[in-house]
Specification:
131 residues; mainly alpha; 3 helical TM bundles of succinate and fumarate reductases; 79% helix; elongated; heme; transport; heme binding; Succinate dehydrogenase hydrophobic membrane anchor subunit; transmembrane helix
Amino acid sequence: MSKPEVNSLRSPLGRVRGLGSAKSGTHHWWMMRVTSVALLPLFLWFVYACFVLAGASYAETKAFVGAPVNAVLFLLLIGFLFHHIANGLQEVVEDYVRPELKRMLWLFAIKGLSGLLAMIAAFSVLRVAFT
């Protein structure tokens, strides 16, 4: 009996079970890098905004947030920040939570809560900007 030809580094059991690369790790890795790079200037702008608004009245704060550039920057900060947080927590859960049901529940909670909080924050910025 001849030895089977080896074309893969996966074991025969791994091939039968269908275990291997999910082909999604690169996208997740890139999104973490893109969001972190995007958050750097947005965070610097946010620190600047905090200093500008320190001691400001409600009307001054509303005027600052209502400026189109500042409203867009706030919305970008919210979007990138919550996306980055959700992806980071997803990576931790996928790496360290073992029972499949528990992992799926945690991932559902993370995605749902981060999406809900992002929508609330974005709605708040839009409400201040347009009223």
